[in-house]
Write a structure and sequence with these properties.
Blueprint: H1 4-19, H2 21-26, H3 33-68, H4 72-79, H5 81-103, H6 111-126, H7 128-138, H8 141-157, H9 166-192, H10 196-216, H11 229-232, H12 242-251, H13 254-270, H14 275-295, H15 298-318, H16 321-340, H17 344-363, H18 367-387, H19 392-400, H20 409-432, H21 435-445, H22 450-462, H23 485-492
């Protein structure tokens, strides 16, 4: 690609030589004019066949790819310069062959045109194999995804100039929205075919575009962030309330909303179908939120929090416990990163959402999700205690309200799982000498039956570090470090066993 101009210059020199001095060497004097004319006519027919075969084969392959992935494939194919240059070259070779057959009526021996026909005819056959290799490579899913990503990047980069017009902005908005919308179509089609590699490519490209956009967002003109008619008419915005659209425009978030809406759509189609896809959606959404924390984009951080809440709502509605099991961890990691960045209000907000969706999960009898919320919320409180953040007490209060009174045996088991997370946190407090925080936890659970307390203590002291099944999270909720065992026993010593009445 770097030395393409050298190849073109060489071809022009070769054609010039063939038309001049080389013509006498390539084509000797032929006494039979009819034979030469017949050869040129046959060459014209062959080149016409090559052109028809090429167009037919390419059209069939492109149509099959468009049906498999997205109609956008056809547009991308037609926009690629190599494709229309190759077809244009074949058409030009056919036209010159036809014109040469007519030239025999005016010149009995048009050696120059015959030499040009030989050159173009030979190249027409030579380029077929490389061109078909290019077409097959272009229609690979990874290439299609890269072309879509490149289209969005180009639309953004073209607007880094501060001087631009509203018409140009609207045109770039339309191109960016069109390309972004195809990621969801391709991913959903890949879900139906169980092609995880294509799904991963779509999710990664969306994440990379969000990261790229975040890095260059400050350089874009204010006109770029206006909601043009192209944005208003987009399927992901057309049903959004006008007040919400004005808020999105004010916060300059329309492109991020579009990207996260693609994640939302992919997640909705992946629930109960592909837990791995749901996990990746959570991971990449978290990474977008973490970049926003690094760049100080508070509005984008709150937007990622909203979409995490939307994911959890969809998980609970579809009762997909495994997807929720993994998404909750990514949500918690975002909260921990907020604590590390000093954004305590974000961590408090996420903790409150944890408690809310834990109660919703409890009401829908998804008791295991309640335990997951309790474990991750306890982990978040522990991180806050390690950082000595002033919001630690607020997080602890939320954590102590996350459980519910049991109403059945199944709920009792769920409540016991929540209590285990609370006891683990109490043992951590005692190991640090923060007895007052451990006493708050004791006050919250002192009314528990002593038999249940004994069971909780026994299970915590006997749970192994490695869970006996392979899971994406790779952690056992109720494993307690050996150095914390004495503190668990100290905590349980605060519970008074029931007095057994004497016989009779």
């Amino acid at each position: 690609m770097k030395y393409r101009w050298v190849v073109w210059v060489g071809l022009l020199v070769l054609v010039g030589w063939l038309l001049g001095p080389g013509a006498g060497w390539i084509i000797p004097r032929i006494q039979q004019q009819d034979s030469l004319a017949g050869f040129v006519g046959t060459l014209a027919e062959v080149l016409a066949g090559v052109l028809g075969f090429t167009i037919s084969a390419v059209a069939i392959v492109v149509q099959l790819s468009a049906e498999r992935f997205s109609p956008k494939v056809t547009e991308l194919f037609l926009r690629e310069r190599v494709n229309w240059l190759t077809i244009l070259f074949l058409i030009l070779a056919n036209l010159i062959s036809v014109w040469t057959t007519l030239a025999f009526a005016f010149d009995p021996m048009p050696f120059g045109l015959v030499a040009l026909n030989l050159c173009l005819g030979s190249l027409s056959f030579i380029i077929l194999i490389p061109y078909f290799i290019f077409v097959l490579d272009f229609l690979q899913p990874s290439s299609i995804i890269q072309n879509l990503e490149r289209q969005v990047r180009q639309g953004i980069m073209q607007k880094l100039s501060k001087i631009t017009s509203l018409q140009a902005i609207q045109r770039n908005h339309r191109h960016c929205l069109s390309a972004l919308g195809e990621f969801r179509s391709i991913a959903i089609s890949a879900l139906q075919q169980r092609d995880q590699a294509i799904i991963l490519g779509c999710l990664e490209s969306l994440r990379d575009l969000a990261i790229f956009y975040g890095e260059h967002k400050s350089q874009l003109p204010d006109l770029w962030f206006r909601l043009t008619p192209a944005v208003y008419k987009d399927p992901d915005f057309i049903s959004v309330d006008a007040v919400k659209l004005r808020e999105i425009e004010k916060q300059k978030l329309w492109l991020e909303v579009k990207i996260l809406r693609q994640y939302q759509g992919i997640l909705a189609n992946s629930l109960l179908v592909s837990a791995e896809t749901c996990t990746l959606v959570g991971i990449y959404t978290r990474e977008i939120g973490e970049q926003a924390l690094d760049l100080g984009q508070a509005s984008l951080v709150h937007l990622t929090v909203k979409f995490f809440n939307t994911y959890l709502r969809a998980v609970i509605n579809q009762r997909d416990i495994r997807a929720g099991y993994n998404i909750i961890k990514q949500y918690r990691l975002l909260a921990e990163q907020a604590l590390l960045q000093g954004c305590d209000d974000i961590a408090i907000e996420i903790a409150q959402h944890f408690r809310y969706y834990s109660l919703i999960a409890h009401k829908t009898h998804l008791y295991f999700l309640c335990e997951v919320f309790a474990y991750d919320l306890g982990h978040l409180v522990r991180t806050c205690a390690q950082l000595a953040e002033p919001t630690h007490r607020q997080l602890l209060d939320i954590f102590l309200k996350v459980d519910q009174d049991p109403e059945s045996e199944q709920q009792e088991q769920s409540s016991r799982g929540v209590r285990k997370s609370q006891v683990k946190l109490a043992a951590y407090y005692l190991s640090r000498g923060d007895k007052q925080w451990a006493e708050l936890i004791f006050q919250d659970m002192h009314h528990e039956p002593y038999s249940r307390v004994q069971v909780i203590c026994e299970e915590l002291l006997t749970t192994g570090e490695d869970f006996w099944e392979f899971t994406d999270r790779g952690e056992s909720f109720y494993y307690l470090e050996p150095e914390l065992h004495p503190y668990v026993q100290e905590f349980f010593s605060w519970f008074v066993p029931p007095v057994t009445p004497p016989p009779g």
